Structures are given as C-alpha cells and as structure tokens.
C-alpha cells in the first residue's frame, strides 16, 4: 500500500558525544546479564567487561520472579523427567538439544547460585524446600523468601558483581543501536546515559562482543506483569542490526494476574502459579471449579491451557475476570509462604486470607526472541543473546513454569564457555547506511491497545490484519528525540514482527491461539523467523521442523 510506513533501520539520535572501550558489553542486569558477566570474568579475568542497565542494577524482570527456579534437585526427580515436562508444555515447538542442556546443566547451575550466597528456603531438617507449579509432575521449584525468589537471586548476583573490580557497571543506560563493522559484525553499541558523570547523553562503546540480556517485550500490551523498562529494546536493536528473531507469536499470558479494573494499564500484580501449586483453585462467579475436566492437572495445567480456560469462561459469562480461592491456606501459611503477594493484595483492597482474588490473564513472558544457537550466538557475528530477549529453543510454544530463571542461568554460562575464545578482533564501525527514523512517544498507548485487542490472548485473521494495517500506517507524529520515542519505535518494530508471525502461523499451538484455526496442526510444528529488509519491511519465513512433543509421538501428521 502506498502509505505503508517502513520500520526504521536505526533510531534517530544525536551523534555520540563521548566514547569508551570495553572488550565485552553486557546489556541487562537481571539473572542472565549478571551471570554472563560473572562467568565471562571467571573464564578470562583480563577482559574488560561493561554491564549497562536501563535503570538501576536491581530493576528489571528478575526481581519480580515470585515462584522460583526449576531444577531436578529433589528425591526421585531426574533431568529426564524435567525434560519431558518441558517438551510437553512447549507443545511440539522446542529444540530438544536446548531443553536437554537446560535440564542437565540446571542442577549444578542452581547449586552454584547457592554457593554464591543465594539463600533459598529450606525445611526445618535442612533439606531444600521444593514446590510444584503448572505442568510439572514433580516438586522441583526452589524458592526464596517464600515468594521473593527473583529478588534474592538478584541480591546475591549484585553483591558478587560489586566485588569484581574489572566488571564496570553503567546504570540508567538505554542501548540505542549496534555499531557494525564492515563485515556486518559487532563493532560497538551506542548508549543514552542519564547522569553518569562524564558519560551523559548519547555515547559510543567500541567493543568486540555484545551480550544482549535485556529482557522481554511486555509493554507491547496494555496490561503486563513486566516492569516498565520491558519495551523490547534488545530484540529491536538486534532486528535493526540484521539478526533474525524467532517465534515472536508465542507470547505467554499468565492466567492469574490480579484484576485491578477495566481501565488499568501497565504493570499488574502477578498472583504466582505457586499459589495454585500450594492448593489454591479457580472458580467462576457461581463458585464452580471450571478447570476440573479441562486437563488432567486441572488448576495446575500448563499456563496456556489455564489462560484459555479462564478467557473462555469470561466470554461465556460476560465477566471481566474469574476468581482464585486460596482462603483455605490460612493466615499463617499466607504470611510465611507468600508474604509479598499477601501484602500486594491487601494494598489493592483484597485480603486473600478471607476473600477471593479477582484474576484475569495478562501478558507475562515472551517465549520467542532473538534466535540463538546452543551457545547463545545470534546470526550477527559477535552478538550473543540470553534470557528472555533470546529464543534459545527451550520454551517452544509455551514456557514451563519457573524455567525462565533457569534458562538465563544456564545459557549465560554457556555463552561464557565460548565467548572468550572466539572474540572478534577490534574493528572500527563502518559507515551506517541504515535509514533512520523515530516514532513519537505519545503513539504508544494506541499501539498497545491495538496489540491487546487484536494480537492478545484471542487471535483471528481479521483482527491480525487490522493490527498490521494500523502498524503499517502508524503516523510517527512529531517525535522529540528522547527515550520515550526510542522505546515507542522499538515497540513498533517488535509489534510488527509479532503480528506478522502470528498471521503466518495458521494453527493454535501453545500460547498462540487462533480462533479461526482452533486446532493444532503438527505439520506446522516448526518456527517463524522474522527479519528486517533494507527497505524497512519486516519479513517472515516459515521454517519446518518435526514436532518435539513426546505426548504425541507416533501421532504426527
């Protein structure tokens, strides 16, 4: 169409006002980024590492992880059982080798976290306290502070980084774009820094490798459990640099997010799956336990199953939310096991000890991201990705509960195993011929609303076409060069790739639910790759692979 507006090839930004050098730049300070920095430093202490984070070190998604971290640590549990549960939850779209790496290396990685100083919860007899969440057939979720696992892991990692003088940290730094060498590989990264002494405003870091660990894309949608910094920056930076993104259509909507009212926006309070793991259950307005009969695991079914069941029941009863009943857990158990959730619920006027909690699905986790191999390498030389920004292949169409922290831990360790030995030689940035552009920050709200209503839990060809038409025609407005505009431009790029991928996948699989194609089709169990053409058009491609769901082996189409 004549008014089809291209996605910018780079962000409009001032020329760098300062420069510095580092061997490796790690973008992000959650479990993935800090683990990568610590492990790379341990592998080669001579390397100068620079960790840049958009907010402060403790911000980001890791600190919000309530449930815990999954690993085969309990009696009778094995990596093989963890692998089976992960593959089943992934609905045929996992990479088996990636899953195997995750579950076999996971227990040692968690033990290393403990050795680093992470204080997980233990039983009175000293044994590690493990619980169960949706999709798991064993108690294998290690937790800390009851429901503050992510915050405790973040605390321990930050303490370790602060004791490493050769790991430099720059806070309040937004990654703007990669600097590319003549061969298309990494030569550096431009940053916008707020108030870091000599480094203020836009600058350039010349480096030999970049590790993206920048988290997810939650702010694509109106309601999300993600913090405000999760605007898909790392994915957009990679896309503009020529990297391939994979399986962006697999967006996980957490089934039990506290419903705050019809006009609520931004980050919403998560009611951890672990609450259901401890015996809470879902009911409708009439008190009926509607998950009974929906799945053999009932209220502990995989998240896509529960989110769809809640959404269906909401549509059937014309209600904006369902209810979570955890009253029978009692005040002492709530205070000990879920103190954070208890406090947040009460802050919003609900006492879960005596009242039902209103819940509805909201965007939670991106299973897709920057496509990587088993060692975190992307299709751009010198660019690595780990954690939620990456698509390592472990999550498939639907992440198994509490595998996210483990993925960041395991694959950051894997990056550290190879990166020091394959560092690129120093190279200056080549002339940047990518077409620059910018979208005004005030366009974000409209974009989020379209993505929520047309590309949310329920998807249909007509709605996806409407979303793409909106995105392709989006008027950039009169943008001021500022972080809000950079973030909104990133959201536009990722939203376009996500909607294009969702339109191409004409089936229902895992967290991708097409009302017009309600059945799973294992002839389409492969992947959707996205990339940016030189003219600013987002392209998508179908990559056929066999189903990897062990529960359907022998029944593949």
UniProtKB/TrEMBL annotation:
| Entry's family note | Belongs to the FAD-dependent oxidoreductase 2 family. NadB subfamily.
Q: In terms of domain of life, where is this protein from?
A: Bacteria
Where it sits in the cell: the answer is:
Cytoplasm
**PANTHER family, A to Z:** L-ASPARTATE OXIDASE, L-ASPARTATE OXIDASE, CHLOROPLASTIC
Domain Fumarate reductase/succinate dehydrogenase flavoprotein-like C-terminal spans what residues? Answer: 485-542
The beginning of the lineage is: Bacteria, Bacillati, Actinomycetota, Actinomycetes, Propionibacteriales
Q: What is the reaction catalyzed?
A: L-aspartate + O2 = iminosuccinate + H2O2
Task: State its Enzyme Commission number(s).
Answer: 1.4.3.16
The UniProt record lists the keyword Oxidoreductase: yes
- Domain named FAD-dependent oxidoreductase 2 FAD-binding: which ranges? 23-405
Organism name = Nocardioides furvisabuli
Main localization of the protein? cytoplasm
Record-given protein name: L-aspartate oxidase
